[in-house]
Amino acid sequence: MPAALRLASVLLFASGCASLVFETLWFRRAGLAFGNSVAASALVLSSFMAGMALGNALAARFAARVRRPTRLYAWLELAIGASGVLLVAALPALGPGLAPLFRPFFDTPWLLQTLRFAAGFVVLLVPAIAMGATLPLLIHALRRHGDFGHLLGRLYGWNTLGAMTGALLAEHLLIPLGGIYGAAWAATLLDVLAAAGAFALGRSGGRRPAAASAARAQPTGARARLPVRARRLLLAAAATGAIALAFEVAWFMMLVQFVPNSSAVFASMLAVVLGAIALGSLAGARLSRRLPSWHQRASELALLVPVLAALSHASLALWMSPLIDAFEAAGLYGAIQIGALATALISVSLMGPVAFASGLLFTAIGRALEQEIGGAARSAGLLTLANSAGAAVGPLVAGFAMLPRLGVETSAQWLAGSYLLVAWWLRPLRVRTRGALARTALAAALGLAALLAYPNGSLRATLERLVAAEYGDDEEVVALREGIVETAIVTRARWHGQTLWYRLITDGYTMSGGSIDARRYMRLFANLPAALHPGIRDALLISFGVGNTASALTGLAELERLDIVDISPEILELAETIRETPDADPLHDPRVHVHIEDGRYFLQTRRRRYDLITGEPPPPAFAGVVNLYTREYFALMRARLKEGGIASYWLPVSQMRPVDSQAITRSWCEVFDDCTLWEATPGDWILLGSRPPADATLTPVTARRFGAQWRDHAGATRLHEIGFDRPEQLASIFLADAPFLRSWSRAVAPLVDDHPERAPAVVGSWEALPPEFTWIRDTAATRDRFARSDWTAEHWPPSLREASARTIALQPLVRLALLDAQLPPVARLAAIHRSLDASGMHELALWLLGSDVDRQRAARALAAAGSDAPAVRLELARGALADRRFDEAARLFGRLPEALQPSEVALLHAFSLARAGQPDAARRAARRSGLDRAPEWADAWRAIRTTFRLADPGGATAAPERG
């Protein structure tokens, strides 16, 4: 192989690597300028591909006239490096600059999207044109070093292998090590190296192509009219580009149902696609050298692509089936995780075959096109022009037309079928031999058979099996929406035929739900600020979920307007499905205004200010979400608050490392001087901050205003359900104020736009508090912080501070209840006893008893319908005990068969009798069930005897328990 071709392969590899690093950075930064919505991302991608197509077109038109193509190539690489760094720096500032231009068209979506496309095209024009022109120029420079098909396949293959490497380097190495700017300068260095290689290539023989032979290769008049065969080949090239990009969208939509939807995983999946295309192109190069006429069978290859697509689609279910079986057999509900190796294997089997065929077809079409029109530079330019133009259209067609209407599986089937049209365009002009016709007929028959037998529906069946495996048989899928943003699933939790609540699953992740712990922290985003603010009239909610926070906000009597911003129209459509939840559908409230938009872009481009801004976006590990947790984003929130306005935000501590929680907390506290932290549930904390009045004076709300929500019957009911019977109990979730939080997070760098690597790379979870959070277990220290806090003095009603501080002692019980800790019987009994004696909280006692308001509601409905099932009686007994109706609880527990043997029910029966003042009956119940003789229940029974001064079986009276 000529040394010039080897050097060209290396520099194209470096160029492809740099280009993908830059593209990764540009699209991240473009999200700050144009929004991270799928519409905005697709339009920016399409505008970039359109810019590349323009570069291809210029190369097709003028490359053959360039006398020193390697030198021009080198300057283009330097232009890419220079413009790339400038774009990385300039894109974040572009959004505010374009906002006045875009603002008049926010209510005209098609015009707004057109402006986004145009702006993206202009901004990315210089590097996109340069990238589009590089490959045709280099092919022109090296034309004399080999057959065009071999040259095209090899150079395109190595360039795409570089792109694959760049996708992995950007997410897994460069950004984690150097942040956004460090990665940008690394990409610039690669471009400089590619330019240096191009200068060296020019000196070593790639400097001047054979001008005379190049001129002879260009037939006169060819630019005016292309042959019919050439036009069909270009149509096929455009179609393969469009189908490949549309397939990428469909593949990613399939895979994210089973693997974490993070930027790192997305980069790995993209690398699989690029790697397979590169290998296909390199295979085409080898075939061009060994079988010069192989490209004449390109139509047969296109006919067989539906077979590859159908087999690849079926492989997803085949991979997942044994994994789901293994998790079901182990009983690991809610713990299914697909490891890195399994993710790689599944990605390769799903995406690899069709992507490999795409690379082969690209090389074959290019070889056939060059035979038709001659001229390496022009052929390469027209080929890449058609392919890039198709790639610009593919994501738009898939995202805006196919997926919302057909769903991901039917879309994939139609895309596979589109290769039959490609095969038609690739057919030879002349009738071939009988053997060739037979091969074509066989390939066509196989392709049609694959389409007819396409495993449409296998993905949905696998998803339903996965939901059953993760959440158990008590949940069923009731709705599924496939759209341009995500695949959203709603499941219904049922108990003996009664609906308890709904769960929203997006791309395989439980995004929201109506369980009691979810309702608790989501309602508090509204209820906690509402208690501290003199009157919330204008509110902004970022991320709708299942509507828990929205319902809490619309339940505020003083509210006049609520703007809801969500990136997913599918989630808002599914709100109709979950109207049976305890909260009414807030989207029907006339005060509500819905905006389908990226939350950050909304804040950046709107002028309205709010009394309350609250948000619960996905955890920052999810692709495209990290910029909703950075210091710059929090500053945007603060800027959109009215004076005295409050911001509340989700800190999902159970789904990230403690150091990540500290980084986000530090960013929050650098923006909000009065930052505070609250423990809504053990794994879901709330960051609170405000924008003080201009005169820097703040008067605490009155006790009457603080408790206004409890005077409204509907509001009081919602607060009681989540464990707040009295206003002062809001203090029980207090953790820390600004001085403590700044000290706690001082050693960790803040999460900022330029360093997204400071957020977690994957979504994790924990069932028990990690050691780094043990400080929150110190109830006495927390109570002291609340009592001594300057923030408390400024915000909390003075008459409630002492009573509020006392409620902090209850939080350990709440933590135990919501973590569903597997406590020994004696410890659980002690917690139940304390909740009944000290707190007066009905819900806390109910949670510790293993029930909640949803199960109680269902049990009462079943009992009213005549059911006398043991499970129904057990729930009614738990409710009676939590209500302090001890006689009724004892009667109900006593009617249960489980009370006749040592068990938790028998223990609660004896406990209820003791609480009801029936010591003799409690002793008899313990003897009858064997509770007093069973070793595993001995400590718990001894605690009952001691607490209630019951005589032991021998007649002695136990000493009262102290403490």
| Radius of gyration from CA coordinates | 33 Å
Q: Tell me the structural class.
A: alpha/beta
Number of domains: 5
Q: How far is the first residue's CA from the last residue's CA?
A: 87 Å
Tell me the CATH topology of the largest domain: Rossmann fold
Report the average pLDDT across residues: 85
Which tags fit this structure?
single chain, 963 residues, alpha/beta, Growth Hormone, Chain: A, 5 domains, 8-stranded mixed beta sheet, 4-stranded antiparallel beta sheet, 36 helices, 62% helix, elongated, disordered C terminus
Topology:
Blueprint: H1 3-34, H2 38-62, H3 69-102, H4 109-123, H5 125-141, H6 148-206, H7 211-217, H8 228-255, H9 263-290, H10 298-330, H11 340-373, H12 376-426, H13 434-452, H14 458-471, E1 475-482, E2 487-495, E3 498-506, E4 509-513, H15 516-532, E5 538-542, H16 548-554, E6 561-566, H17 569-573, E7 592-596, H18 599-605, E8 610-615, H19 631-639, E9 641-651, H20 658-671, E10 676-681, E11 684-690, H21 703-706, H22 708-711, H23 713-721, E12 734-736, H24 738-745, H25 779-788, H26 790-795, H27 801-807, H28 811-819, H29 825-839, H30 842-848, H31 853-864, H32 870-882, H33 886-894, H34 904-915, H35 919-929, H36 938-947
Parallel strand pairs: 5-6, 5-8, 6-7, 8-9
Antiparallel strand pairs: 1-2, 2-3, 3-4, 9-11, 10-11, 10-12
Helix pairs in contact: 1-2, 1-3, 1-6, 2-4, 2-5, 2-12, 3-5, 3-6, 5-6, 5-12, 6-9, 6-11, 8-11, 8-12, 9-11, 10-11, 10-12, 10-13, 10-14, 11-12, 12-13, 15-16, 19-20, 20-24, 25-27, 29-30, 29-36, 30-32, 31-32, 32-33, 33-34, 34-35
